[in-house]
Give the backbone structure.
Amino acid sequence: MAENEIISDIEAGKEMQQLARNYAYHRGSVVRMFNGVATLIFFGLLIIGTIFSFSAYAATSSGAVFYFLEALSFIIAWIVSSAARIAAQWEKGLVFRLGKFSGLKGPGLFLIIPIIDSVAMVDTRIQTLDIPKQQVITKDNVPVSINAVLYFKVVAPDDAVIKVQDYSYAISNYAQATLRDVVGGLTLDELLAERQKIGEEIEKIVLAESKNWGLEITNIKIQDVDMPEELKKMMSRQASAEREKRATITKAEGDKLAAVNLADAAHTMSASPGAMQLRTLQTIDGLGPTASNTVVIAVPVDILEAFKAFVGSKKE
C-alpha cells in the first residue's frame, strides 16, 4: 500500500513539473515590443528639463535649485513617457483605470493616463499546451497511459483576463480532466481505432466551457497511447493469429477454386474427342528435351479410349 502511494506521489509530482514547464514556456514565449516612442519622449523631455535647469542655475547661482529642477524634469519625463504604449500585431492591451476595466487598445501605438491607468498585454496568437501523460482505466478495465496536445487562442482578451485567474493553466487542467472522462468511457479497441474521433469529442466538451473564458480551441491531438507490456504481447499474439486465420481461409478458397476449375477442365476434355491425347502430348513436351527424362507409356491412349468405347457398347 505504501509503495502504491509513493508511486502515485511521484506521478503527481511529474505532472506538476510538466504543468510548470508549460506555464514557464507560455510566459517566456511572449516577445515584447521595444517602446521607442516612450524612450524618445523621455529623453526629449529630460534634455529640455536639463536645459531649463542650467538656465535657472545661471540666473540664481543656486545648486539646490538646479538639482531640484533636474529631479523634477526626470520625474515629469518618466510620467509623460509612460503614457505612450505599443502593442504588437498579435497583442491586445487591456486598460484598467483605477482598477476598473476601461477598454481594449492596440495593436500599434496608444496612449493612457499615467499613474491612473495600467495595461495588461494579452497574446492572441495560437498557443500550444502539452497535456501530460495520464493513467486512465478504459471501459473494459484496461490501464493505459495517454497524452495529448492542445491548440488554443484568445478571442476575447477581457474575458480571459478578468474571468479566469490564469487561462493557460485553467484550460490545460480542464482538458486534462476531460481527456480522462472521455477515454474512461471507451474500450481499448475504440481508443486505438478512433483517435481522431476522441480528439473531436474532447475538443467539443472543452470548447463549450472555454467560450465563457474568452478562449477558442482550434484542435486537440492525441499523441501517444501506452499500454502494459503483457497486454502488448497478447495483442501481438492476437494479431498474429488473426493473420494466420486469414491466410488459411485464403488458401482454402484457392484450393476450392482450383478444384472447381479442374472439374470444369475434365468435363470439357471428356466431351472433346482427342483432347486427352493433346493434353498428354503437351505434358510430354513440358518435360523438355533433357536426356535424363525418360517417358514410358505402358498403354497407349488410343487403346484406352477404344476399351472405354467397347465397355460402353456392352452396357448398351
About this structure: The chain is about 60% helix and 20% strand. The chain has four domains: 31-123, 127-227, 231-271, 274-316.
